[in-house]
């Protein structure tokens, strides 16, 4: 495997720095000062990579690359172009790299080493494909553009079969047919031709199997393979850049204007998309049936939604059915909560009930949040999701679903007296307050006393004491007897913090009492 790097650059200091960095990466640099000499050296001893600025003297870098690609001896040479950012449009091959100057020589050398290693993997596949038994491999080892380039350079005829694990844990299959190194057909799902090839180029994982020959297929692709791959990779880059902004394939679509109200002259792509919307109602169906490439269709849907001509509604995945043992709330409990919320609706209550959580110490809060994590459907918020909260946080802990319509919003309230003016505000409209205590009950109760007394004066106040029992705490019974007066009018719950106990079983009784 060649590790020779030909550096063609009349900027001697820059060239020398890059050469030194290449040696540090185990590469073999050779230096020349202009394009004519670079052509002579490359034809005499083909390098793995040629590095040159676009404005290389005598023969510029792009012209040099064009000459070397046309020569069988140097078809495998890869190019790294150095760009001075002069604003000119640059045309380069899809396997080339462009580095903006100034650049760190060590980083450029690392890029060159990656190209050399990638070419080594291509060479391994080429050796396997030199006979007529076919070749197999993984796209994680050699990318699909590299694979097609390999077969194009060697003018192979045959079919590339592709398989990857898709959504819903199902296999997706694709095929690419080549004749004399040129791609003439591609298919994936219901899509064929250029559009199918562009979609397959987005596959970064999966397996491939190339078989020589193959049956007759219609030649739907007429564009030269090199140009086709360059356009496909441009679309792949655009899709990656706009990830999260374009509509998801599972989203539902609906027209918000009547077809008769549309202008007479619109772009053919827009016209085709609008016609498909009269038949299909999901993004994926429209993308699959439209004759234009996926990226262009998604951009069009995004534009139509922005202009208010269509509506895009993300599909919400249904909640998985829970067994009786997994279910925290019964149907009767959920019904009572909805009735309670309905009575408060005139006072601005939403679909969720608010439950305050007050802790005598931060450790008790951590233990309680750990139990909450094991509950089905729980969604922790902010610092509580990351486990880096503090006792001074006045913030939502998370939401616990009661049924498909309602839930409990758990809100953490600090016991520090600095927050005293906010205690009544936080408690307004709350279904109740849970006081968490651990360790010695007397001191724990003292730490929450001021807040408890404030809440006790509020109308419809409901409070619950929860004692977290850690393993090895044997004196709890005596501690409870000494502090019985604390629990005369407030329900008491004991929660053993044992790893083998399911959180649902531990908390079901507590939340059953919390609900009205």
Layout: helices, strands, pairs:
Layout: E1 4-8, H1 12-24, E2 28-32, H2 35-44, E3 49-53, H3 61-70, E4 78-83, E5 97-100, H4 105-128, E6 135-138, H5 144-153, E7 158-165, E8 171-179, E9 182-188, E10 191-192, H6 193-200, E11 207-212, H7 225-241, E12 252-255, H8 268-277, H9 283-289, H10 294-306, E13 310-313, H11 331-343, E14 352-359, H12 362-373, E15 379-380, H13 382-386, E16 395-401, E17 407-412, H14 423-427, E18 430-438, H15 441-456, E19 463-469, H16 476-482, E20 492-496, H17 503-514
Parallel strand pairs: 1-2, 1-3, 3-4, 4-5, 14-17, 14-18, 18-19, 19-20
Antiparallel strand pairs: 6-11, 7-8, 7-11, 8-9, 9-10, 12-13, 15-16, 16-17
Helix pairs in contact: 1-4, 2-3, 6-7, 9-10
Describe the structure.
It is a single chain. With 516 residues, the chain is α/β, with parallel strands linked by helices. It folds into four domains: 4-122, 3-Layer(aba) Sandwich (Rossmann fold); 129-241, no CATH class; 252-313; 331-514, Rossmann fold, CATH 3.40.50. Helices cover 37% and strands 22% of the residues. It is built from 17 helices and 20 strands. The strands form four sheets. It has a seven-stranded mixed β-sheet, with helices on both faces. Strands 6-11-7-8-9-10 form a six-stranded antiparallel β-sheet. A five-stranded parallel β-sheet has the order 2-1-3-4-5, sandwiched between helices. A hairpin with a 5-residue loop joins strand 7 and strand 8 (171-179). Helix 6 packs across helix 7 (225-241). The longest helix is centred in the first third of the chain and has 24 residues, at 105-128. The protein starts with a strand and ends with a helix. The mean pLDDT is 83.
């Amino acid at each position: 495997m060649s590790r020779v790097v030909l550096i063609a650059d009349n900027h001697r200091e820059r060239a020398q720095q890059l050469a030194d960095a290449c040696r540090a990466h185990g590469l073999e640099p050779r230096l020349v000062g202009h394009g004519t000499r670079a052509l002579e050296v490359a034809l005499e001893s083909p390098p793995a990579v040629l590095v040159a600025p676009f404005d290389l003297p005598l023969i510029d870098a792009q012209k040099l690359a064009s000459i070397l690609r046309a020569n069988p001896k140097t078809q495998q040479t890869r190019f790294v172009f150095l760009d001075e950012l002069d604003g000119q449009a640059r045309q380069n091959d899809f396997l080339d790299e462009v580095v903006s100057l100034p650049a760190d020589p060590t980083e450029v050398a690392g890029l060159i080493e990656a190209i050399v290693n990638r070419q080594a993997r291509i060479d391994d596949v080429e050796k396997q494909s030199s006979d007529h038994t076919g070749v197999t491999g993984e796209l994680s080892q050699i990318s699909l553009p590299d694979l097609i380039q390999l077969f194009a350079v060697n003018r192979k005829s045959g079919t590339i079969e592709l398989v990857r694990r898709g959504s819903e844990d199902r296999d997706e299959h694709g095929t690419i047919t080549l004749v004399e190194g040129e791609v003439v057909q591609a298919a994936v799902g219901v899509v064929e031709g250029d559009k199918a090839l562009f979609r397959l180029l987005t596959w970064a994982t999966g397996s491939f199997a190339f078989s020589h020959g193959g049956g007759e297929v219609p030649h739907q692709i007429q564009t030269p393979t090199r140009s086709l791959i360059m356009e496909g990779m441009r679309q792949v880059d655009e899709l990656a850049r706009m990830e999260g902004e374009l509509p998801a394939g599972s989203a539902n679509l609906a027209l918000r204007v009547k077809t008769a109200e549309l202008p007479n002259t619109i772009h053919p792509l827009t016209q085709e998309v609008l016609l498909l919307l009269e038949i299909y109602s999901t993004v994926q169906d429209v993308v699959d049936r439209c004759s234009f490439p996926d990226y262009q269709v998604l951009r069009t849907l995004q534009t139509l939604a922005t202009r208010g001509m269509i509506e895009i509604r993300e599909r919400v995945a249904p909640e998985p059915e829970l067994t009786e043992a997994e279910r925290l709330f019964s149907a009767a409990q959920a019904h009572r909560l909805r009735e309670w919320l309905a009575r408060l609706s005139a006072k601005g209550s939403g679909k969720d009930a608010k439950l305050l959580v007050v802790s005598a110490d931060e450790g008790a809060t951590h233990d309680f949040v750990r139990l909450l994590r094991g509950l089905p459907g729980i969604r922790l918020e902010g610092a509580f999701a990351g486990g880096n909260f503090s006792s001074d946080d006045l913030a939502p802990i998370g939401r616990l679903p009661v049924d498909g319509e309602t839930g409990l919003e758990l809100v953490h309230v600090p016991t520090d007296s600095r927050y005293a003016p906010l205690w009544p505000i936080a408690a307004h409209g709350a279904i109740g307050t849970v006081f968490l205590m651990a360790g010695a009950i007397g001191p724990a109760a003292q730490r929450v006393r001021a807040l408890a007394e404030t809440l006790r004066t509020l109308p419809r106040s409901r409070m619950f004491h929860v004692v977290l029992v850690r393993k090895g705490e044997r004196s709890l019974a005596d501690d409870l007897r000494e502090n019985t007066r604390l629990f005369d009018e407030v329900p008491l719950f004991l929660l053993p913090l044992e790893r083998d106990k399911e959180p649902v079983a531990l908390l079901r009784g507590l939340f059953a009492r919390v609900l009205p």
